[in-house]
Amino acid sequence: MNRIEIVGIVAGALSCTTFLPQVVKTYKSKSTKDVSLVMFIIATVSTALWLIYGILIDSFSVTFTNVIVFISSAIMLYLKIKYRNREN
Amino acid sequence: MNRIEIVGIVAGALSCTTFLPQVVKTYKSKSTKDVSLVMFIIATVSTALWLIYGILIDSFSVTFTNVIVFISSAIMLYLKIKYRNREN
Predict the structure, then answer these.
(1) For residues A37 and A39, what is the distance between their CA atoms, to the nearest angstrom?
(2) Closest C-alpha among A65, A16, A27 to residue B36
(3) CATH number of B3-86
(4) Which residue of A has its CA nearest to B40?
(5) Contact B42/A18, CB-based, under 8 Å?
(6) Running DSSP on this structure, what letter comes out for residue A81?
(7) Which residue in A33, A39, A52 is closest to B34 by CB distance?
(8) ipTM of the predicted structure?
(9) What is the mean pLDDT of residues B40-69?
(10) Which residues of B touch A22 (CB under 8 A)?
């Protein structure tokens, strides 16, 4: 494996974990007032599309990465909606 | 252009905009208590790596997408740190 691909793999592995710290923080605090609903709607829809694209082009990397990001962004979207009535 | 590539392009265009609603919300509210610092550290570092990877493999799509996401996540990281002392 060359150095360029190592950069890509590290980038991909890190990207997978992007939303996990937010999920953990929100699960603990049960507060989402400052978190953007639109951000997680966009993240959930775009990763669902990336997932479909990964399956269609038969790419394991694209599919696998986006399964993880899709699940974490969908959980955050659920938490945001769940705790929405606590915002005032 | 076939239908599969249209799915990929829509996914990519949406992904570019993921953090923008959070930047706008935080710029207006000046409050980031519920936003995860670690999420935006990961997002900034991983998109910087994707950007380097895009340049190294000479891919316009990877580079262009990640310039936008890198800028928006770096702005959010800056805002999170800037408004951190308002959190208590």
Answers:
(1) 5
(2) A27
(3) 1.20.1280.290
(4) A18
(5) yes
(6) H
(7) A33
(8) 0.89
(9) 93
(10) 35-36, 39
